[in-house]
Amino acid sequence: MKKQQIVPEPLLVSANSDGEIQRRPSIAMQLLIAVNGICVVLLLLFVAYDYQRALGQRLSENQIALQEEAMIMLSAVRDIEHHGVESLQRFIDSVCLGMEDAHSLGHHIVVRSRDHVLQAQSHHRAGDEMLRSVESAAEHAGHRGQFQGRELIVGVARHDKLAVYVSEYIDNVRAEVIRNSLRRLGGSLALGILAAIIVNIVLLRIVVRPLERLIGIVNEVSNGQFGMQVNGFRSRELSYLSLAINRMSQSLEDSDRQRRTQLAKARRIQRNLLPEDPDLGGAIFAVHYEPADDVAGDFYDVRRLADGSRVVLLADVTGHGIPAAMSATLLKAHFAEACERFNDILEIVRHVNSRFTDLTLPEDFATAIVLRFIPKSRRLQIVNAGHDAVLLRSPDGGIREFPSSGLLLGVDPDADWSVEGIAVSPRDRLLVYTDGVSETFDAEKSMFGRDRVLSLLSETAARTPKAALESLMQSLDTFRGDGIQLDDVTAILIDF
Known about the structure:
By secondary structure, this protein is of the alpha+beta class. The protein contains 11 helices and 15 strands. The radius of gyration is 51 Å and the shape is rod-shaped.
């Protein structure tokens, strides 16, 4: 008998946690991202630092060079100043033109004396705005200024009332520094990639692959492959972890072996409780008994009473497995005791129910059918305690059903039932079964159902009880397909 499954909260949490684990990155991925990310960040910081340092150094060198050029120009201007303004202008233009054509982008010269201000005219930058920019830059720290949105650097030399300013744009300096930085970046990147490859290979060999081996073993153990062992790690931490996993795996194997041994013994004990070749006083008895687990909650027994009548019990305890098997064993003991004390079928059922209710847990109960057959008078008495209907087929094909006539066993110690009494004729066939038969499901979650049982009862009427049951079970297996047997299956067929 199956009860509604209520999943405890920890299982729900575990299921959600499993889903979250699948969405999280692996430790291998996190390690690779962390190591490679640190390498990239360090490389970018190095490039930024190198660029700023190179730019500062280059600008400082340029400012010194412009300062030296201004001092040379100052000496030359003093020597040719007496030749007149025109000669001085030509000299300034020729020097500025030659300097810019050589390597100094935006090169410009300004000469301020007591009487006049001269600017190089060769590149058409002369003007009041340029003059203000150059003189303003010469007064600032670093000798830098702005002209028409472009940054320039200035060198200045003075003597008495004579001042010479030499300027150039910083654009070419920045471009040169960027080119040099990119070249160094290329070399650093090549070395960084090589280092990253080496580090990644080391991580893969020392951390990632060993962890994958450990995960593989843990997965195999979690899938029931107990006893699996893993060794051969070079690091102390992974060796400790593998040792712990090996111990766990071995412990699980030992526990599983002990559990299987105990279950095998429990199965033998339960099988030993079932009757062998029961005598029904002339009626033919056939049974199919198939637990869903190693032990079952289904139970049947056949007893001879003191007055010569036979009593058949078919019970289905809540659930299946060991707890249900223990309850079924209690039923066996209570039923054997009742059959020794009483001949009346109702007294037998009442006694079993009273003892079962006292000794089982409040949530445990059982459906049951009790049949009493009196061979001399060919009378049959039926008590149905919450079980599926008893089916009685007559030789003419008619099927009579005997539904439940009272509560389940284990619900109320003072419960009572009505008794159905009938006379059976030769070739009458009686079928009783647990709900593991009618509630078998196929792959589409369709249920085998009572109608199929009724149909098979008629279709196999000409066969022996044993052959008829074999046909019924074969139909169940075909209907179930590759699905799992979810409940114990027991069916009893009696020909009178």
